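ok here's adenine phosphoribosyltransferase, seq below lol
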Amino acid sequence: LHAQCSQCLRSPHMDLCHVPTAREKGWYLALMAPNVKGPNYAWLDPSRLYCHPQGLQDCVADLLQPFQGDPIDMVAGIDAMGFILGASAAAVLQKGFLAIRKAGHLCVQTLAQPYTDYSGRDKVMEVRTDAIEPGLRILLVDQWVETGGTMRAAIQLVERLGGVVAAPNVCPAGVAAICIEDSEGGRWIQERYKCAHCIPPRLQPHFNRHQ
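and the structure came out like this:
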């Protein structure tokens, strides 16, 4: 997989028809594109992965695998890239999808939560107050968890409204992302909530170092 990643990352185009014979967990990571625009951007762009039909399907399947059999009531995705994976997961589960938005976009009653994102910028996210009832079991989905600030704010919003984001081995639902980095914030989330991600253990150190 490491060699496949290196080869695909050097390619300016992707083959949307090619599917490897052996589809081990994370094979689709090779479809992601590296940052070519400098330090003001994320180090890797997963949106290239979403253009590949089988890659997207397998990515979502891997994210949902740890939650098989869990009674999930709703999937929530975080603005904006979490909308793609979250809505895809909701469609597979045949559940509703809740968009957790950056502040200022919702024209209805909202609950707000300030946070600091992976780049160190202070922001605010909002969720509509009429979608989550006490005890509703929520699967929270985002594209990436780097410092954990964004996901932690989403968890706080859900829990402030009485929703349930699962603790490991306690109750269903939880947190899913392509990558949960081994950062202080990433560890905080994984220690307290049931989590799923797509990075094989042997590649996790490379992703932690943004290589």
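fwiw Residues 81 and 143 are 6 Å apart (CA to CA). kinda neat tbh
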